[in-house]
Amino acid sequence: MNLIKYVLSTALVGGLLWDVSALAAPDRGQSLFKLCAACHGAQGEGRQNLLAPAIAGLPQWYLENQLNKFRDGSRGSHPSDYAGLKMRPIARMLRYEGDVSSIAKYVAELKPVKPPMTFTTGNAANGGTTYATCAACHGADGKGQQAMNAPPLAGQSDWYLLAQINNFKHGKRGADATKDATGATMAPMAATLADDQAALDVLAHIYSLQ
Ligand code: HEC
Ligand code: HEC
Q1: Spatial separation of the C-alpha atoms in residues 24 and 4, rounded to whole Å
Q2: How far is CA 82 from CA 50, 75, 116, 127, 163, in A?
Q3: Which has the higher per-residue pLDDT, 111 or 4?
Q4: Hey, what's the torsion of the CAs at 139, 82, 90, 107, to 10 degrees?
Q5: 24 pLDDT band (50/70/90 cuts)?
Q6: Which of 42, 59, 94, 205 could serve as 99's disulfide partner, Cβ 3.0–4.6 Å?
Q7: Residue 22 has pLDDT above 60, yes or no
Q8: Quick check: CB of 108 below 6 Å from ligand 1?
Q9: Structure confidence at residue 23 (pLDDT)
Q10: In the structure, what pLDDT confidence band is assigned to residue 168 with cuts at 50, 70 and 90?
Q11: Ligand 2 pocket check: which of 189, 195, 202, 203 to mutate, most ligand atoms within 8 Å of Cβ?
Q12: Could you tell me the distance, in angstroms and rounded to a whole number, from the CA of residue 38 to the centre of ligand 1?
């Protein structure tokens, strides 16, 4: 009888210990995401007042590329890149082996949230013509192409995309091909958009792709 009690109690304690250790060691990506949610939102949907874009559902390869760029300063280190400078120290907090891939995998699996359109003056028809150039890398559907290192644009907030087009134009992103080879393929493309109106037109087309 005592033996049975003993076996039962150790099994119970063993079971409890197992549960507790499972609780104490949650998925690394999930626990790191609490840090991201402070700026990027609880669902990774982005928060414009903090200049933080939507990240939910971006492909893992692109998330890893960008986190590594923020970490090594090939993105987010230009003195007037205010938004990038906010992201850079966070990326540098991912300091343990595997942190970048764990958080990228977690964020890639989050369900994307459709962003509101904030600009209303873009002409989607004109933008569709311009977008033919962009489609070569970002895909006709705006879903991005890993083979070209080009991220999805459809589903991203228009205010953030405009900010990045201007960053590429003004040498705040992709200016140095030795440090940021993939950004340097994008910079001359941003330069083909003559002015803000041309950018707003192409963004109106991109919004219609969602
Ligand atoms: C202090 C606020 C803040 C926190 C915390 C933060 N970010 Fe950011 N993040 C930003 C801002 C601002 C930008 C926009 C940078 C820019 O405009 O270039 C950004 C940009 C990004 C981008 C680039 C997206 C793209 O489309 O290129 C990625 C990826 C990203 N963050 C991932 C993360 C992850 C993962 C975490 C958590 C480990 C995190 N961020 C935590 C503020 C933050
Ligand atoms: C030659 C290929 C190529 C073409 C053509 C191209 N892009 Fe890109 N684009 C890229 C790459 C590669 C990146 C990612 C750069 C990086 O790794 O930081 C990018 C990034 C971007 C980003 C930043 C997205 C983010 O989440 O931060 C925007 C916005 C963008 N492209 C808009 C455009 C528009 C608009 C056009 C057409 C006028 C265009 N691109 C044409 C290759 C291209």
Answers
A1: 30
A2: 11, 12, 23, 28, 11
A3: 111
A4: -30
A5: very low
A6: 94
A7: no
A8: no
A9: 47
A10: very high
A11: 189
A12: 10
Cα 38 to the chain's mean position, in Å? 14
CB within 6 Å of ligand 2 — which residues?
A: 65, 130, 133-134, 136-138, 148-151, 153, 156, 161, 164-165, 182-183, 185-186, 189, 192-193, 202
- Which residue, judged by its Cα, is nearest atom 13 of ligand 2? 150
155 in Cβ contact with 114 (< 8 Å) = yes
Report which residue type is found at 81. Answer: D
pLDDT of amino acid 9? 52
**pLDDT band at 210; cut points 50, 70, 90:** confident
From ligand 2's centre to the CA of 111, what distance in Å?
Answer: 22
Structure tokens at 125: 């028809």
Q: How confident is the model at residue 59 (pLDDT cuts 50, 70, 90)?
A: very high
Q: Which two tokens stand for residue 151?
A: 């991220």
Residue 1 CB contacts under 8 Å (≥ 6 apart), including other chains: none
Buried-state track 46-63, b at ≥16 Cβ within 10 A, e below 16: bbeeebbbbbbbbbbebb
